[in-house]
Amino acid sequence: MEANSRMREITGNLRRDMKDLLGESAHIVTGFFKRGVCTVRAVADKWRTFTQDISAAVDELMKPPFLEGGPDAPLSTMEEGAEPIVTVTGIIDRNFPIGKQMPLSLANVYVVEMDAAYREEELPAQPVKVRIDYIRDGRTDCYCLPLHIGAGGSLLEQMERHLETYRADPNRVSALFQQAPEAYRLQLEEEFTPFVRESLEDLSQGTLQYFQRHCDISELEQQLQGQAAVLPESQRAPFEDKAAKTVFSLRRAANGAVPQEEHTDQTEQRAAHPVPASREAVPGEMTQPPQQAEGGESPQRSVKVKIRRLKQKQARRPQRPKVHLTPER
After folding, report:
1. CA 291, 292, 296, 298 torsion: positive or negative?
2. What is the DSSP letter of 10?
3. Contact partners, residue 170, CB within 8 Å, separation at least 6
4. CA triplet 172, 177, 183: central angle to 5 degrees?
């Protein structure tokens, strides 16, 4: 009887110790994505591997907010040709109300405009937290980025600087573990530091370029819309339809799906050589705008080149570096 009581006491103590370790681990890794050193999906994958190595009863003890169904989890689904969406998650400012959403390309420009306004009025840099939801390599994911409006730079430029501060300074990575209890700090730092470094590398060399590709596609989309505006009305709707399919195809490819070449090629041809309004129209009238006559590159030629370059970037896109999920000993 006494032996059974002692065994229950030992089991209870182990369970409490395990729950404490899991709680501190969840707190630490939540801080990783909140500080913009990894994506939520990467944290969730690493957490599953880490906890499975500890115990199969983890789900009974704790479910962190970044796992499926939690408040910090990535969206369950997104359209395969969707542009990343930026949501303001933290600040009290009329220009950045919590919940404000914008496509990534628009948010990138908006940050530049607000940054210039803050500096023009000599206001102190204002911290803003945003969440970027996206689909990459066929999986939804999200990235939390701390911005400083008034410190200079677009959203993507600030992201690049933010990542570089961690990549260049090992002490900043070590500081991520300072809040952990001393009893667990060394174990957690040894377990998660390689993961953080690899995540920073993937964000810098993969995710940042992925975001930039979507901004490039948005720039192309604006050029196509400008071309549509100068076309005869009878040609405008078909051109706009082809342009929309081209943009969707390029975004779909950027998100990890196979590009729909037929839409891209057809619109590329229309962008390079619009059809004259009538048989009596002067040949080349729609393809020789004033800018070209003055020695500049024609918008149609510029669009054609941009589409080809985007397609070439998609074709030679390097494979996403894999984050090793097996705990190192």
Report:
1. positive
2. H
3. none
4. 150
Q: Can you give the pLDDT at residue 157? A: 97
Strands across the sheet containing 126-136: 101-103, 85-90, 126-136, 139-149
d(CA 141, CA 75): 7
Buried b (16+ CB within 10 A) or exposed e, 94-129: eebeeebebebbebbebbbebbeebeeeeeeebebb
Question: In this structure, what are the phi and psi dihedrals at residue 264, rounded to the nearest 5 degrees?
Answer: -65, -45
Looking at residue 9, its pLDDT comes to 41
Intervals of the chain under pLDDT 50: 3-18, 57-58, 60-61, 259, 262-264, 266-296, 320-329
pLDDT at residue 303 in the model: 58
- CB distance 300 to 272 below 8 Å: yes
What token pair was written down for 267?
């619109």
- What pLDDT score was predicted for residue 12? 41
| Domain residue extents for the chain | 2-191, 211-315
Cα–Cα distance, 312 to 146 (Å, whole number): 32
Calculate ∠ Cα 239-241-245, nearest 5°: 115
For residue 266, the surrounding DSSP H or E stretch is helix 261-272
Which residues, listed in sequence order, are joined to residue 148 by a DSSP beta bridge? 127
pLDDT of residue 321: 43
Query: In whole angstroms, what is the distance from residue 91 CA to residue 113 CA?
Result: 17
Give CA–CA dist 34/29, Å, rounded.
9
DSSP string, 132-176: EEEEETTEEEEEEEEEEETSSS-HHHHHHHHHHHHHH-HHHHHHT
Assess contact for 46 and 213: CB atoms under 8 A. no
Task: Give the three-class secondary structure for 125.
Answer: coil
